[in-house]
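Notes on consecutive records. When two proteins share a document, each keeps its own sequence and its own token line. Never mix them. Below: protein one.
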Amino acid sequence: MNNSDLAQILIRAVKEADSSDRLLDAVQELAAAGIEEAIPTLIAALGYNNPGAAVAAVDGLIAIGEVAVQPLLELIDDYNYGARAWAIRALAGIGDIRALDTLLEAAKNDFSLSVRRAAARGLGTLHWHQVPPEKLESVQIQVLEALLLISQEPEWIVRYAAVTSLETLAIAIAVTLPDQASRITKQLQQMLNTDVDLGVRTRVKFAQEKIQQQQHQEQHQEMFAPKIKLQDTEVPEVPHRGGGRR
């Protein structure tokens, strides 16, 4: 049986499920198959009134990866909020840079706490290699500005997510944008000193340690990196002792 035949069988099982439990089982099996043809059905499952099936569908879409991004972006609208929220979770998990604007908007402005958290976390898992080199600096600064703002938001769980993303961003830009990276370390230290939530302060401390470890590794690599060999140059031959004219 090829993937196409398997997909059709699993898709039919989802469509014909006549109870919440059967729907959950069917979506889980379809998600586990990791077949590209399953994308429309998994996206449809995000809108079902079945949170378990939605979680399974999100996991399946994340596993399928980048090919699911455009269909997910097309789903994002204001008419089916439940499906939209699950779609943002999937986009955050995939990390494709095409979702940047959607994640920024959701992280800053969505009324749902869980959506803001997922979007803030997704800003730390973006695939920077997908950004054209000439745009990389401006995009990373845009994400940094958003995360610095989100790290001051009232809900602790969103601040927590922002810290995880600030950690990964600090490591990503440590060499290319050292001045911007220092803004992150200052913000983390301020949060460590002033945040009212113990969980957030603990996560900040962990982030600081990870950033310092990365800095030490880079310094160690630079210290022990092999020296660049000088270009070979012609050296005049020195006659051996006693090798002159007699």
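Protein two starts on the next line and is unrelated to protein one.
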Amino acid sequence: MTASATQGHALQLVQKAHADGTKETEAEVVGRSLADSAVSAGLMAMAYSAHIGGGSSVNANIAEVRRITAAVKDGDLSDLEGMLVGQAVALQTMAANFAHRAQIQDKQRNLEAFYSLALKTQAQSRATIQALVELKFPRQVVFSKNANINNGQQQINNGVPSQAEQTESTQNKILESSNGQWLDTGAPGTAIPTHPHLATVGQGHRADKPRRKSKGVA
């Protein structure tokens, strides 16, 4: 199926069949192709490839994007690494060009505009290099066995006693006697001596004064 032409090269869309054997309609083919990342990238490349010449083909661009996609799925990132290197070099070249053009300006407004563009493209080049480094040398995530996983914040204790350990240590010190021996909670307690002045009053210690009889109710 042939779609609209781009720079003399017609975009060829493949018509597929449904599960029941019926073929896709033209609207279904176009709708599926719009969601195809390779088709979108191929059309975008054709739109911005006028500086290369008229020998490029949108179908060749789509085929190349699909080749790179298949290589990435297989674990080959060499094409992506080459893209990032090219982008970093191109952005750095743009930054140098903007900085040079800023020096020859005689108006403050133009000077600030070119310096701003130079700094922005330089920052983008640095970000591209950082992306290349992370792609080439991915970071490794370290999982600590000392991590306290809870519903709230997570804390990793590296040699620092937790609050529960400190509380337990404090309780153990309370149960320890002054001479370093542990208190025996199951040993029988020592009897407390009674005070002689608080002894039970016996029969001989009672007063000789007779008790007063209460008056009964007549």
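For the record: The radius of gyration is 45 Å.
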